[in-house]
Fold each of these.
Amino acid sequence: MIKQVKEADKTMSRAAKGHEKYGKEGMQALAKAGKEGKSLDPIRKKYDKYSEEVKEGLGELADAAERDHEVQMARADLYKLAKYAIKLHNMLKGISEAEGLEGWVQAKITKAAADIGSVYHHLDYQESEANMPEMPEMAIEGKYKNNAQRKAVHAAKDEKKNEYKESLRAKLYSKLGK
């Protein structure tokens, strides 16, 4: 197959190779620039079908495919982790507090729980951030449109604080019997 391609390249004329690389429109632009004595490099870059952009596009596709593969692998690992976690949980039911666990065993379990928790919270945050409604301009900048708006916001906050304090006071008096 490669040999056939090389032989085809040998038999192709320069014009045919140019049309293959730059297309009809690109070849016309190159011819026009050549007649006018202008630089051909910008035109070559613009119309080149085999430029780095094509390679980058392939790289992005490969990256997407790899990420898809990574998701599948992560799901398989999580399934295995859940299966072992259930088995370990059942094994630990048979071990008393007096018997205890070796330090390294407890450390591994604690580290695994912390790592899984970190991943969960990271993905949960990303998901919730993506689903959040768009914030009004004032909230994004942290500024108020005018003094009246600032006072209204602070008054609402103060009212909530006072309601909370009153509810605590009522609970305290009910506990003390007053």
Amino acid sequence: MKRPNIIFIVADDLGFADLGCYGGRDADFGKVSPVLDQLAANGLKFSDGYANSPVCSPTRFGLMTARYQYRLRGAAEEPINSKARTSTTLGLPTTHPTLPSLLKEQGYRTALIGKWHLGYPPAFGPLRSGYDEFFGPMAGGVDYFTHCASTGAHDLWVGEEEQPHEGYLTDLISNKSVDFVKRMAQDTSQPFFLSMHYTAPHWPWETREDHELAQTIKDNIFHLQGGNIQTYHRMIHHMDEGIGWVVNALRETGQFDNTLIVFTSDNGGERFSDNWPLVGGKMDLTEGGIRVPWIAHWPAGIAKPGSTTAQHCMTMDWSATLVDIGGGKAHPDYPFDGVSLKPLLSNPDATFARPLFWRMNHRGQRALRLGDWKYLRVDGNDYLFNVVADARERANLAKQEPGRLESMRSEWERWHNTMPPIPEDATISLGFSVKDMPQR
């Protein structure tokens, strides 16, 4: 089979149940995510897929490297904040092999359209880590209209140059992606790899019609005084529409059948998200902070379209999968921690054991998912849950299963000892606290 084009779409702070295909409620205007729902209906959906972290930039380190993010200093920031703009240490090292660089070695043409959040030029940047093209913000969050970060600095780039553009950022990302797909169709002798990293539905809470709102929140784009469910649904719907534009461009150019589209979120949802039935959200190692949608669509390569698999996986596994499908392999000096999921595309029932480990400086959190069970520590308290029977993590079985708790805690400790320690100067950046809104 001819190697596929690959489009890897990442939403920002999308909750587990925000999409209709994951049980999300309709909005007052109708379906929130009809395009993604259709891709799931004709593709492969994962019920137990996770993000590498419950916060943005650490997950993106895992995505780019197919390795546990804890191996790199920049990923110890929870997350990298805009104050790091001049840092020469807080970013993705340009010498490290990446998903785009490994695919580029196999002849793929590569582009990142959307959010980077892995350090700033000249020390770091997408063009220095395997991408041929880049359009988007370098920071973790920007206004959808002014394209300014939380510091007030303009943060929309083409390559390594800041360039002003008019328009709603979600639509700019979608339209630039359509343009890339159409340009790639002019010469199909080489496949392409497109990273579409939306900032939606991350704050500030702005729909396409909220241009005037941008000036009122420019001094604090965390937008703590704004937003609602209706706005949030619209933001997701704008993203979904844009994905539909890209799908249409693939169809129009004859590239749809042999393009693998993968969709996920960088972490669990934030204040307006729907994570049902999960508890917690962004910054939490409870399921609501790390379990996220995973959808794969590839007409020429998925054997049982419309299937759902219970295979456990996390972000870096998909990075390893895409390198595998593209004909590449890990650099010998940087072996993958991620495991290829390629066999699942042929047989979604061919699941295998996949222990998944996490740690967070924030609240001293740690977690291990092993089979049906999950070991969790938050604020010094250890918990044990059967997350198949109890996805909300309410029935703590630590006292009923002390042997299992000790075994899983020991396994987490063994894994932890293979990772670098959390640096003492690592920072935790919280956008809001209980002073701003009640704890969820």
Amino acid sequence: MTDGRITWRIVLGENILDFPVSVFNGLTSSSNEGLLLHVYGWDSDFFPFPVRNRSARARETISKQRERIAEVDLESIKQAIQLEFYSSFQIMQTNFQRLDATRLAHELAEQSLDAEQKKLNAGTNSTFFILRIQSSLAFAELREISAIANYNRSVADFNRLRGVLE
């Protein structure tokens, strides 16, 4: 105690705070901000006690966690969009290949019908085989029309994902 002043040293973690406490004047003169607590045993003497801002740190931690969650959600959405785009492209390619296959099947059914009609004209075939091949040709045409519709639908879906209107 020098000149009626007492120096308080408070150690909190890595922080060491030295500040004078006036026994006779009642309040301290300190530049540290904090909560003023009453020191029992000293009449009307107070000292500033630095209080760590735990609520602000908690809010900061919560906001950082929310930011990480938002980043993960964004990445998940990006991956879902990429997957949908890739899947739509694959479906479009598959439908195009299916369309090619059904066109080829239709052409072969027409060639088969022509060959069977030539055989019928030559007298080596019966109308039963012609009717059967005509039925096959009709189913081949239906499958081709269905393949065209599926391909057009998949192209429209793919363009919708790309944001293109055609």
